[in-house]
C-alpha cells in the first residue's frame, strides 16, 4: 500500500495546471484520425493494430498502447489489453509473503486470499474478528473491485462518539481534513489500561488514510496510558509527519460537521451500475455496424440469458439506468440483474430503439456511448475489435466476448 505524501505534493502542482484530458475511446479515435487517411486504413491491415504511423509531426507524445493483440482485440493507443496470462501481485502484511502468488498449498492465508481477491478489491487492512474459515469462504467469491470498503470507517468508529475533527489548507498537500479518536481496544476494554488512536487523514489527491495506532507506539514526552492521553499534536506528527500541523484548526462537532464528513467519505460508494452491450456480427468491427444491427440473433440471445433477466421497462421500479419506465421511449424491455448488494442494468443495443436509415443510431448511442464499461459480443467470424472505432468520451473499458459453437451443447466463450 503506497501512501507517498511527498509525491502527491509534487504532483499536485501538475494537476492544477492540467485541464480537460482526452482519455479512453475518444483518445484512441483522435490518435487514429491524427495519423492521416493512409495510415488510418493501414492500421486495420496490421495484425498487431500497428500504431507507429501515429508518430507523425505533432503527435510524438501519443501513447502507443501495449502491443498486445489476439483474434478478439487489437492493440490500440491509450489502451492496455488483458488477454490472459497476466499475473496478480500478492498482498500481504509481511515481506516474506509478498511477490506473485505461487499457488502452493503451504502459502499463507494472505496468499490464499490474493489468489481469489485482487489488490483492487482490498480497501481495509485490519485484524479480522470473524472466523478464518469464513474469510476463506468469502475470498473464493468474485468481488467488485475498487470499492472503498473503508468509506464507513467514520460512521462506524467516530460518528456520535467522542472525537476531534481538524480542517486546514496545507501549503503542499492542499485542503486536508483529519479525524482522530482515542479509545480502548475492544479485547481489553474491561480491565486494561492500553489505548489506541483511530485516525482518518483526508486530502483532495490521496486515497484517504484510515487506521489505528497503539498509544505505546507513539514517542511522547507525556506519560502513556493515562486518562488524559497524549497531546494530539504529537500523535498527528508521528502518523503524518509531512503534514504542517500548524495549518489545522479544531472544528466544532456539530451534527452538520459530522454529517458532512460522512457524506464526504461515502460519496464514492455506488451500488447501482450500468453496463453497455454491443452486438457484433460476422465481418463487423465498427460501432456504426454494431449499432445498426436491428435485432439480436440466436447466439446473442443465448448470451444475454447468462447475464440477467429480461424485464419490462414500463412500471419497472428498481434501478433503471436512465431508461424510460413510463412511455417506452427507450424500448419496451431491458436486461437487469443483481449481484450481492449491487443492482446492474445493461444497455443492450438491440433492445434500445432502432431508427431506420440512421447510420449513427443516436437513440442507442446516447445510452451505450455514456457507459464507462461496454461488453462487445462477437459472433464467429467477427473482425478483431479496436477502441479506435468507437467515438465516445465516456467509454473506457471494453470486455470482448466471442462465442464458439453457439446454440449447441458445446457452446463456450472466449
TrEMBL record:
GO CC annotations, alphabetized: cytoplasm
PANTHER family reported for this sequence: RAP GTPASE-ACTIVATING PROTEIN (PTHR15711), SIGNAL-INDUCED PROLIFERATION-ASSOCIATED 1-LIKE PROTEIN 1 (PTHR15711:SF10)
Annotated keywords: Coiled coil, GTPase activation, Phosphoprotein
Domain of life: Eukaryota
Ranges where the Rap-GAP domain occurs: 261-414
One Pfam family, short name: Rap_GAP
Single annotated GO MF: GTPase activator activity
GO aspect biological process, one term: regulation of small GTPase mediated signal transduction
Protein name stated in the entry: Rap-GAP domain-containing protein
Species: Micrurus lemniscatus lemniscatus
Amino acid at each position: 500500500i503506497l501512501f507517498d505524501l511527498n509525491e502527491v505534493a509534487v504532483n499536485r502542482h501538475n494537476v492544477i495546471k492540467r485541464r480537460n484530458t482526452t482519455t479512453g475511446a475518444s483518445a484512441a479515435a483522435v490518435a487514429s484520425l491524427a495519423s492521416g487517411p493512409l495510415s488510418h486504413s493501414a492500421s486495420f491491415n496490421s495484425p498487431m493494430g500497428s500504431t507507429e504511423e501515429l508518430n507523425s509531426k505533432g503527435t510524438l507524445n501519443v501513447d502507443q498502447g501495449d502491443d498486445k493483440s489476439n483474434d478478439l482485440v487489437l492493440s490500440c493507443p491509450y489502451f492496455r489489453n488483458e488477454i490472459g496470462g497476466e499475473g496478480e501481485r500478492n498482498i500481504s502484511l509481511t515481506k516474506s509473503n509478498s511477490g506473485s502468488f505461487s499457488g502452493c498449498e503451504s502459502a499463507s492465508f494472505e496468499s490464499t486470499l490474493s489468489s481469489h481477491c485482487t489488490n483492487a478489491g482490498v480497501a481495509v487492512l485490519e485484524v479480522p474478528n470473524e472466523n478464518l474459515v469464513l474469510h476463506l469462504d468469502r475470498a473464493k467469491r468474485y468481488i467488485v473491485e475498487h470499492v472503498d470498503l473503508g468509506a464507513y470507517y467514520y460512521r462506524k468508529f467516530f460518528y456520535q462518539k467522542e472525537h476531534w475533527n481538524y480542517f486546514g489548507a496545507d501549503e503542499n498537500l492542499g485542503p486536508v481534513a483529519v479525524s482522530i479518536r482515542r479509545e480502548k481496544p475492544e479485547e481489553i476494554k474491561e480491565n486494561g489500561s492500553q489505548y489506541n488512536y483511530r485516525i482518518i487523514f483526508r486530502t483532495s489527491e490521496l486515497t484517504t488514510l484510515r487506521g489505528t495506532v497503539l498509544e505505546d507506539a507513539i514517542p511522547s514526552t507525556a506519560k502513556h496510558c493515562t486518562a488524559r492521553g497524549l497531546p494530539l499534536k504529537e500523535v498527528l506528527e508521528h502518523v503524518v509527519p509531512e503534514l504542517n500541523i500548524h495549518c489545522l484548526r479544531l472544528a466544532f462537532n456539530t451534527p452538520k460537521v459530522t454529517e458532512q464528513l460522512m457524506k464526504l467519505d461515502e460519496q464514492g460508494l455506488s451500488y447501482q451500475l450500468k453496463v453497455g452491450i454491443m452486438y457484433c456480427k460476422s465481418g463487423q468491427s465498427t460501432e456504426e455496424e454494431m449499432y445498426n444491427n436491428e435485432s439480436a440473433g440466436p447466439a446473442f440471445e443465448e448470451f444475454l440469458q447468462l447475464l440477467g433477466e429480461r424485464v419490462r421497462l414500463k412500471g419497472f421500479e428498481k434501478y433503471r439506468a436512465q431508461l424510460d419506465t413510463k412511455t417506452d421511449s427507450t424500448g419496451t424491455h431491458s436486461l437487469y440483474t443483481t449481484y450481492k448488494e449491487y443492482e446492474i442494468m445493461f444497455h443492450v443495443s438491440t433492445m434500445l430503439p432502432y431508427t431506420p436509415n440512421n447510420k449513427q443510431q443516436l437513440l442507442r448511442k446516447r445510452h451505450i456511448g455514456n457507459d464507462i464499461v461496454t461488453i462487445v459480443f462477437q459472433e464467429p467470424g467477427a473482425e478483431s475489435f479496436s477502441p479506435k472505432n468507437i467515438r465516445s468520451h465516456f467509454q473506457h473499458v471494453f470486455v470482448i466476448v466471442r462465442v464458439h459453437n453457439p446454440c449447441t451443447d458445446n457452446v463456450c466463450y472466449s
